[in-house]
């Protein structure tokens, strides 16, 4: 259902939009976690380590496509907020063409460099073959990753966050059954997990396409909508490329940490993989509010309602702060029990190593929560360069901590890599947001000859 977020109480609209996103993101994480559990319990610790060792590379593929497609659909949301439906359709068509070219280029690069990337990541020899088989199948299914995120992004740009949720829940359930069937019944090993993920995403893409065709008449594209215009394409790329680079930089910094962890052997890899899956699940409420805020700010910025943008950002900041405290308490209390789920037999080394990481990182969730708020707010108003700078800062600080601190303190140094990066990234995007929004506010007041920004 189409939802215009330019009228009504900002907090209520954002919460309503967030809830389906949160459920969907949790389901997405749960089926990602189920992959790990199935692999760990049916195939063993080494196979779990093989999938985990490629996790940041998988995240890089996912992050680059999410960032790129999200950037493209920011323009779609802005045109919808401005009631410019003709250019909204042109934006959807332009995003589709650009995404196709992006996928072809990215896939060709992966084909030539995938093995070398795993070597650079220090993937241990005993799990290298399984790791390469797993990530190769994922890379071959990149087109499905791209188009799921593009189509669901277009649907969300029009204020509908519920429908992608339904498709994601359905695909998540299918994914779990496919993984069990392909691994347990067909004996495909880690390849079965990768193939199940790609097939489930393919089902999601088909569902999104059919839904758009049937339920969104204003998105029925005409032949004229497909005519490429360089200036219009440039508007999309100016936002999409920085967002793709920003998300990729975050993933690259995770690859640096993973490379350091890989040097500690399969048990540490398995522990780090388990801890990261738990942390990613805990972060989903913060992620979801950030995504909702991006749509809210895009629509309201497109409509010229700067006061509503400021109010929505403030509300999300307070909510995310509260959520970060709650998640930290839950993870600190139940961390050990959650780690035990990932392996068939209790392994004290894996459990203690994972607990060490989680008990340190939860203390810094506040900074992570604010990154999601201010980063998405800036992206929603079409200002992606400060989030990009923030990502570069995160990459530098995380890489320094992972490499330098690990040399002196071992895995303990790795545990502090993300918290240090979160502090730096949060400072950049929060200061950047207040500088930008103040400048926009002053420009708005000057143009409209008023002295105070309206909240509604």
**Helix and strand sequence:** HHHHHHHHHHHHHHHHH
Helix content: over 70%
Average the pLDDT over all residues and give the rounded result.
Answer: 82
Oligomer: single chain
Q: How many structural domains in the coordinates?
A: 1
Q: How many strands?
A: 0
Structural class call reads mainly alpha
Strand content: under 5%
Distance between the termini: 23 Å
State the major sheet: none
How many H/I helical runs? Answer: 17
> What characteristic shape results from the CA principal axes?
globular
Question: Which keywords apply here?
Answer:
disordered C terminus, 17 helices, globular, mainly alpha, 456 residues
Please render the helix and strand layout as text.
Layout: H1 10-43, H2 45-53, H3 55-81, H4 85-120, H5 125-140, H6 142-157, H7 162-185, H8 190-215, H9 230-262, H10 266-282, H11 284-302, H12 306-340, H13 348-361, H14 365-380, H15 385-409, H16 411-415, H17 417-448
Helix pairs in contact: 1-2, 1-7, 1-10, 1-11, 2-5, 2-10, 3-4, 3-6, 3-9, 3-11, 4-5, 4-6, 4-9, 5-8, 6-8, 7-8, 9-15, 10-12, 10-13, 11-12, 11-14, 12-13, 12-14, 14-17, 15-17
Account of the 3D structure:
This protein has 456 residues and is mainly α. It has one domain. It has 17 helices and no strands. Helix 4 (85-120) packs antiparallel against helix 5 (125-140). It is globular, with a radius of gyration of 22 Å. Residues 448-456 have low confidence and may be disordered.
Q: Could you write a compact summary of the structure shown?
A:
Helices cover 84% and strands 0% of the residues.
């Amino acid at each position: 259902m189409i939802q215009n977020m330019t009228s009504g109480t900002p907090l209520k609209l954002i919460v309503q939009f967030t809830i389906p996103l949160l459920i969907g993101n949790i389901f997405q994480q749960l089926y990602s976690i189920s992959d790990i559990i199935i692999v760990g319990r049916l195939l063993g610790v080494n196979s779990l380590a093989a999938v985990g060792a490629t996790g940041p590379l998988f995240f890089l593929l996912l992050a680059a496509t999410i960032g790129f497609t999200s950037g493209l659909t920011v323009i779609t949301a802005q045109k919808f907020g401005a009631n410019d439906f003709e250019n909204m359709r042109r934006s959807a068509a332009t995003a589709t063409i650009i995404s196709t070219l992006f996928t072809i280029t990215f896939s060709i690069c992966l084909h030539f460099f995938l093995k070398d990337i795993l070597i650079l990541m220090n993937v241990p020899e005993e799990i290298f073959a399984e790791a390469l088989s797993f990530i190769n199948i994922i890379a071959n299914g990149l087109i499905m990753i791209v188009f799921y995120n593009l189509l669901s992004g277009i649907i969300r740009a029009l204020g509908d966050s519920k429908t992608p949720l339904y498709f994601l829940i359905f695909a998540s359930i299918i994914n779990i059954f496919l993984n069990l069937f392909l691994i347990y019944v067909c004996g495909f090993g880690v390849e079965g997990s990768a193939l199940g993920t790609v097939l489930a995403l393919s089902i999601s893409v088909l569902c999104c396409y059919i839904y758009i065709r049937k339920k969104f008449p204003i998105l029925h594209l005409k032949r004229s909508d497909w005519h490429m215009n360089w200036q219009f394409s440039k508007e999309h790329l100016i936002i999409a490329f920085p967002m793709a680079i920003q998300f990729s930089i975050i993933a690259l910094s995770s690859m640096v940490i993973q490379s350091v962890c890989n040097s500690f052997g399969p048990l540490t890899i398995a522990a780090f993989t388990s801890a990261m899956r738990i942390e990613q699940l805990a972060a989903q409420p913060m992620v979801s509010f950030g995504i909702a805020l991006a749509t809210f700010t895009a629509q309201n910025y497109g409509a010229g309602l700067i006061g509503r943008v400021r109010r929505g950002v403030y509300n999300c900041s307070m909510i995310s702060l509260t959520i970060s405290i709650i998640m930290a308490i839950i993870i600190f209390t139940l961390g050990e029990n959650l780690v035990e789920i990932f392996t068939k037999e209790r392994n004290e080394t894996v459990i203690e190593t994972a607990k060490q990481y989680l008990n340190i990182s939860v203390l810094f969730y506040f900074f992570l929560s604010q990154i999601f708020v201010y980063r998405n707010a800036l992206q929603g108003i079409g200002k992606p360069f400060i989030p990009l700078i923030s990502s570069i800062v995160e990459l530098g600080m995380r890489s320094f901590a992972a490499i330098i601190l690990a040399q002196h303190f071992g895995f303990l140094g790795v545990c502090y890599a993300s918290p240090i990066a979160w502090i730096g990234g949060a400072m950049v995007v929060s200061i950047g947001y207040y500088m930008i929004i103040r400048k926009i506010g002053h420009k708005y007041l000057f143009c409209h000859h008023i002295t105070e920004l309206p909240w509604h």
